Amino acid sequence: MGRELVAIEAPEPYLAVTWQVNNFCNFKCSYCNPGNWGGANPNNGNLDIYLNNLREIINKYKAAGYKQFKFFFSGGEPTAWRNFIPICEFLREETDCTIAVNTNLSRPKAWWEKYYHLFDDIVASFHVEFANKERYTENSIFLCDKVNYLSSKMLMHEERFWEIVEFAEGLKQVMPNYFIEWTPLYDELSHVTGPWQYKDPAKTEFFNTHNIEIHQSVDKPNKRADTVSYSRYDDGTITFCNANEIIVNGDNFFTNWLCNVGDCIFINPTGDVSLASCGMGGTVGHILEDISNVGPKQITCYKDMCMCGTDIIIPKIKKSLELS
Question: Exposed (0-12), middle (13-18) or buried (19+): which is 166, by Cβ within 10 Å?
Fold first, then answer.
């Protein structure tokens, strides 16, 4: 029997804001819930209200002793949202924070040349059904030494599985720095889903030997990140918390754990604000309206499986350990 995960910890409290800015995407992947790309919620509200409410949230957490902040933008495709760049520029001016984005990397290289300085972390999801392989490769080569963290996240499509493997192996040959994540699919990417059951045993076996591959041969910013979490195991081992690794290892089950849901704010495509994206923390406001109930909070989790990367890294502890 292997080691057991017993806690996710942070050296000091930090607020992680995950903002699903809207549900418009220029890709319409077969394995992705249409609610993530249909475009019914463009979320194009008044920019000044967004900024004022963001400022209020930041100040509230600072007053509670939080010094570090991380903003993670997803979608849809966040780089297509009209308020995206103005909000990132505001955050850069307002506080010392980490800004991350989950993107399909479909913007042309000229766009990234203009705006890369706004980002610390980029999760570049590769969706084989719609991705332009040449553009994805060109942008990856450009960004791999410009940002602190660039993840080439391979979404392992059932029918084109080995094509994706071949493409990622090609990336490794041309990127001086790479961080390849081999990511198993979920049965429709949503908050109420289960793991994809691959029909070919060879594909399932692939994940037993392939999780993350890392190489660095040229300098990159290497900004010190205080908005990080660590995994603690029952054998005393403490490692950097990587959500993909936890999912692949089947450690993403936290029923009856104590979870600091207030350390993670989730803003959905309609603008509703909740504590964590899983729904366990409840809706506490709206980013264009009242956000007075947003704040730190700890709960006992009763959800079976945690599958959102930003929810997984929320500080949490196995209740039996906390009570011992």
Answer: exposed
Enter the tokens of residue 1. Answer: 């029997």
pLDDT for residue 4: 93
- Distance (Å) of CA 176 to CA 134, 210, 217, 224: 17, 20, 5, 21
State the Cα–Cα distance between residues 93 and 116, nearest whole angstrom: 16
- 241 occurs within a structural domain: no
**Residue range 221-240, pLDDT digits in tens:** 877 667 889 999 999 999 99
pLDDT band at 187 (very low <50, low <70, confident <90, very high): low
Nearest by Cα to 71 from 178, 227, 276: 227
Task: State which residues form the domain around 114.
Answer: 14-227+262-301
CATH number at residue 90: 3.20.20.70
Give me the residues paired with residue 98 across strands. 70
Distance CA 306, CA 253 (A): 6
Give the list of residues 6+ apart from residue 81 with CB closer than 8 angstroms, or none. 21, 22, 24, 43, 44, 75
- Give the global pTM: 0.85
Report the C-alpha gap between 319 and 256 in whole angstroms: 6
